[in-house]
Structure formats: C-alpha cells, structure tokens
Amino acid sequence: MLKTFNLRTGETGFYNITSYVRQAVMESGVISGIAVVFCPHTTAAITINENADPDVQTDLLFAFEKTFPDRPQFKHCEGNSAAHLRASCVGASETVAIDDNRLVLGTWQGIYFVEFDGPRDRKFIVKIMRG
User: Fold this and answer.
1) pTM, whole model, 2 decimals?
2) Considering the chain, what percentage of its residues have pLDDT values greater than 90?
3) Which residues contact 44 (CB under 8 A, 6 or more apart)?
4) What is the b/e burial string over 61-85, where b = at least 16 CB atoms within 10 angstroms of the residue's CB?
5) What residues contact 96, with CB distance under 8 A and at least 6 apart?
6) Each residue's pLDDT tens digit, 86-114
7) Cα 24-6-22 angle, rounded to 5 deg
8) CA neighbor of 39 nearest in space, from 103, 101, 88, 99
9) Residue 73: pLDDT above 80?
10) Among 49, 95, 98, 123, which has the highest number of CB atoms less than 10 A from its own CB?
11) How far is CA 11 from the centre of its chain?
C-alpha cells in the first residue's frame, strides 16, 4: 500500500506526522512488516526523535542553524542552500517496523517531517510492506 499525505508547513520546524503514519498502517491491515516514510523534497526531511519534550526540537533547530548557517558564498540562486544542506544531513526517509498492526516505536519516539525552507505546501509518502 502506498499513501500520500499533504502537509502545509509554516516556518522551519518539526511537524509530528506519527498519527498519519499510524493511520496508514491501520488502514493497510498489515499485521507484520515495515512502513517506509519518504519525503520527496530537497529542503525538507523525515526523522524519528523525541516526542515528549519540545525543547529537543528547539535544540536541534538551533544546532542546525549553527552547523549549517546561510552563507553569502553559497552560489545556489534560490538562496536556500542551508536548507538543502540540513535536509541532506537529516535524510529523506525513515523505516519503522510494524508488529500486530502497530508501529514499533520507542516510548519517547515520534516521526517528524522537518521543514527547512517554509512555509510550503508539502507532501510525504508512506509505503506499507508485509513482512
């Protein structure tokens, strides 16, 4: 099963998409398998991280800004090279195990769409495979 979700993002930030992925898993009826969550954009990413303390997301965004600042030496004409660097570092997809028709995530884990160049109309894709 392949399902595409639309997402309107604001500024740079983390958008918790765990509930969307859970919905796709439930609808699929797959008891055991994997879910692949994919971002088809070059200035956004998918990651799994803590979903209990929002300060973690704030700290990560701060670190991305310090590690990959916008620089006048960048040649990309759209002016979003730092967003491309951040997205490449985080990655375009995550794979999560499915057991008993549920995502296998740690207690504090959530699945996030990370916007590095918003606001934008985005999408992400969930592919469910039987195991």
Assistant:
1) 0.95
2) 89
3) 9, 87, 113, 114, 115, 116, 117, 120, 122
4) beebeeebeeeeeeeeeeebbbbbb
5) 21, 34, 35, 37, 48, 103, 104, 105, 111
6) 999 999 999 999 999 999 999 999 999 99
7) 20
8) 88
9) no
10) 98
11) 15
- Structure tokens belonging to residue 56: 């973690």
Cβ-Cβ contacts under 8 Å for 72 (sequence gap 6 or more): none
User: Who has greater pLDDT, 78 or 10?
Assistant: 10
Q: Which of 23-27, 69-73, 91-95 has the lowest mean pLDDT?
A: 69-73
The Cβ of residue 106 has, within 10 Å, a number of other Cβ atoms equal to: 9
Q: Which two tokens stand for residue 57?
A: 């997301």
**Could you give the CA distance from residue 113 to residue 63 in angstroms, rounded to a whole number?**
17
Kindly state the greatest CA–CA separation across the chain. Answer: 51
Distances in Å between the Cα of 100 and the Cα atoms of 31, 34, 96 are 5, 11, 13
| pLDDT score recorded for residue 84 | 93
3-state secondary structure of 23: helix
Q: Which helix (H) or strand (E) holds 52?
A: none
